Amino acid sequence: MRQRIKKRPMSEINVVPYIDVMLVLLIIFMVTAPLLSQGVKVDLPQAPSQPLPPNEKEPVIVNVDKAGQFFINYGDTQDKPISADVLLTRVSALLKYQPEIPVLVGGDSQVPYGQVVQVMTLLQQAGVPSVGMITDPPEK
Fold first, then answer.
1. Which tens digits make up the pLDDT trace of 29-59?
2. How far apart are CA 112 and CA 28, in angstroms?
3. Distance CA 108, CA 100 (A)
């Protein structure tokens, strides 16, 4: 008579499927990461300044390009210019739902100062308590 050999249960985890999933996710993130940076090309003035402290809320950024057109980083038309009325409406709606959201203004170095002041006035009318300015650090 033969003796029966008891098989012990296998206690190893097969990690091959997990590695496959990880590699697929890595490829997906590598392909989509360049697509996430949208916006308008604005040549910011250079000034010595301190970076903003880390904040859990993404700031509202209003850009003014060389031609004096306004752009906002919220909504589905981030790369299309908007009018002053639309800017006022969007910012006031954002502040209604997120009152503590930071608001920043970025103006092209070639834009007339009056355009930046106009944006700041519109933001004040929308109820923004304080406005930050975006600059590039000076080249050394």
1. 888 887 765 555 555 566 666 666 676 677 8
2. 42
3. 26
* Percent of the chain residues past pLDDT 90, beyond the cut: 6
What's the pLDDT tens digit per position in 62-117?
Answer: 888 888 888 888 777 777 888 888 888 888 888 888 888 888 888 877 888 788 88
DSSP SS3 for 123:
helix
Domain positions in the chain: 60-133
User: Which CATH number describes the domain made up of 60-133?
Assistant: 3.30.420.270
Q: Cα 88–109–111 angle (5° rounding)? A: 50
From the list 35, 71, 73, 42, the residue with the least C-alpha distance to 57 is 73
Rounded to a whole number of angstroms, the CA Rg of the chain reads 25
The 8-class DSSP code of residue 36 comes to H
Stated length of the chain: 140
Distance CA(24)–CA(21), nearest Å, equals 5
